[in-house]
Specification:
The complex is a heterodimer. By secondary structure, chain A is mainly beta. Chain A contains two helices and eight strands, in the order H-H-E-E-E-E-E-E-E-E. In chain A, a hairpin with a 6-residue loop joins strand 4 and strand 5. The N and C termini of chain A lie far apart (about 35 Å). Chain B is mainly β. Classes of the chains: A mainly beta, B mainly beta. The interface between A and B is medium-sized, with 36 and 29 residues.
């Protein structure tokens, strides 16, 4: 089955853009990992700012900043942020459960990437809405298997 | 073979104004060994932190589930809104059920 057909068959819920980097080896695991965290809801491609180096010198320590546009009040706040690596041996990076005690819906951390790939971020709001953003990161030295 | 978990290091302001949003940093020394490396001949034993729970005055403020894609010596920065003098508690759990803890206090005049 051609790759594009297989992607369509995986369901329109998770819209995987055509990826220029090697991210396709773990397609099924990635889709399953995302579905396990956020189900099949269609996310808005909006409302998240990602900051990461376009080229990471050390794949074992790639700085990543996730900022979700949110008032962070009892009425409007982020409840979860999920990070996935589309091209790592396993796709899961981390999930964060947030409360309104977080004055900003911002998380900074360091992730490891085995090769150039897309990092996928999903954010859940308290009203159930889902947001998504992605970033492509190149890696000088792979960070998972050395 | 891993020993006991080391206590996490925290960077927390000593004081804040009521309602201020403050930056909190945590760093914990841990190899975050996935067990995937060297899978050819002698795979390294898996040794991973899996969870962080941050409490402010006893109430859970933030939880993190850490997976294979988090770097060794996990580093995390987040932002808390502080309304009053607060006791912060950070507890990391590893996949074997061990835990390590650190606390800090932010004074509000």
């Amino acid at each position: 089955m051609a790759r594009s057909t297989r992607r369509a068959a995986l369901g329109g819920a998770i819209a995987l853009i055509a990826l220029p980097f090697a991210a396709v080896a773990q397609d099924d695991a990635l889709v399953a990992a995302i579905r396990e965290q956020v189900g099949d809801a269609e996310p808005e491609e909006d409302g998240i700012t990602l900051r990461a180096p376009s080229v990471a010198e050390n794949g074992a320590q790639v700085p990543l900043t996730v900022l979700v546009d949110s008032a962070q009040t009892a009425a409007e706040h982020v409840t979860a942020i999920h990070l996935f690596a589309a091209g790592n041996p396993t796709p899961g990076i981390a999930s964060f459960q947030l409360t309104p005690l977080l004055g900003r819906a911002e998380i900074q951390t360091r992730i490891r990437l085995s090769q150039a790939q897309q990092v996928i971020v999903l954010a859940r709001m308290n009203d159930g809405r889902l947001r998504r953003a992605t970033v492509e990161i190149r890696v000088t030295t792979g960070g998972c298997l050395t | 073979m891993s020993g006991a978990l080391t206590a996490p290091r925290l960077r927390v302001p000593r004081s804040a104004r009521a309602g201020e949003v403050v930056e909190i940093r945590t760093l914990i020394e841990h190899p975050m060994e996935t067990g995937i490396r060297g899978a050819g001949d002698r795979p390294a034993a898996r040794d991973m932190l899996e969870r962080l729970v941050v409490r402010v005055n006893g109430a859970v403020a933030l939880q993190a589930s850490l997976r294979n894609g988090i770097s060794p010596n996990p580093y995390l920065v987040f932002f808390l809104r502080i309304e009053r003098t607060s006791e912060l508690e950070f507890v990391f759990f590893d996949e074997r059920g061990r835990s390590t803890r650190a606390t800090a206090r932010i004074a509000v005049a």
